[in-house]
Design goal:
Length: 276
């Protein structure tokens, strides 16, 4: 579904951010991208939707070679990629509903988007999505009146309104507390399963990655050094990716209100992960 081939990126400053990255992601697979600061995670996600231009290599979404598209074609192709951001990227003065509907703007002409007129079926779908992410009673609230977790749910609903084939998710939980982080990761995972959507999630929290991803890719200094199931990510591999560190932190999962998260801490339990 998404195919990243021999991808390299060197910034104008001379920084080599990615070197010969090869990743194939099938439909419906949730991939967590981990690695220390500066490893190239954000660059990789941004090379997929060409917010950053790769220096070498190709990226295919289905049959479309994203790396060959002109500006107009790229705009159309980006509608097939839903973006979810660390800082939510909402318009504060607009309502929750208007923020979600803005996910449709890429499809619509200038005047319609200027007048913010949306087809009835799009509005109905936005309602359904807001219900699905648990925000049905917040539809008319201004975005800046919401908590961080609620704002991220709006961001998720907005991305899904595009009806994308893949979600590109950049540190979705970086600004959230541990309990809300797990709820958001669970929601993303469930939605991907319901819609057979693939996702690449750039995430710093290794425990969350292990708990909620189908597959983990570890980047170090721009190169893929691990690509496998969460169970295979043991302490030796974590040390290779991040360097020497205590990989046995006491993490508390008791405060999560979902029964599904009563899984053992994956690293404490010798990296045997009970997937949700
Ligand atoms: N716009 C830029 N111009 C020049 N160099 C950049 C730019 N963006 C990133 N880099 C460099 O590319 C490398 C990879 O950065 P990137 O932000 O992709 O890493 P990351 O793994 O996402 O880090 P973090 O977890 O801290 O966000 C780093 O050496 C960084 O300094």
């Amino acid at each position: 579904m998404l195919s990243i081939q021999s991808l390299s990126k060197r910034y104008n400053t001379g920084d080599r951010a990615l070197t010969n990255v090869n990743i194939q992601i099938p439909k419906g697979q949730v991939v967590a991208l981990i690695g220390p600061s500066g490893a190239g995670k954000s660059t990789l996600i941004r090379c997929v939707n060409r917010l950053v231009e790769p220096t070498e290599g190709q990226v295919f979404l289905g049959d479309t070679q994203l790396t060959q598209l002109n500006t107009r074609q790229l705009r159309a192709a980006r509608r097939r990629m839903g973006m979810i951001f660390q800082d939510y990227a909402l318009i504060d003065r607009l309502s929750v509903m208007e923020n979600v509907l803005s996910g449709y703007l890429g499809y619509t002409g200038f005047w319609r988007s200027f007048l913010r007129r949306y087809p009835q079926d799009v509005i109905a779908e936005a309602f359904r999505l807001l219900e699905r992410v648990g925000l049905e009673s917040f539809i008319d609230k201004r975005a800046d009146a919401l908590s961080g977790g609620q704002r991220q749910r709006v961001g998720i609903a907005r991305a899904l309104l595009q009806n994308p084939q893949i979600l590109l998710v950049d540190e979705p939980t970086a600004s959230l507390d541990p309990k809300t982080s797990r709820q958001i990761m669970r929601l993303i995972r469930e939605l991907c399963a319901e819609r057979e959507l693939s996702a690449i999630i750039n995430i710093h929290d290794v425990h969350l990655a292990q708990q909620f991803a189908d597959r983990i890719i570890g980047l170090k200094a721009g190169e893929v050094v691990f690509d496998g199931e969460p169970e295979a990510l043991d302490t030796d591999m974590l040390t290779l990716i991040y360097g020497e560190e205590d990989w046995n932190p006491q993490t508390d999962t008791e405060d999560d209100d979902s029964v599904q998260t009563q899984t053992p801490d994956p690293i404490r339990m010798g990296a045997k992960v009970a997937m949700v």
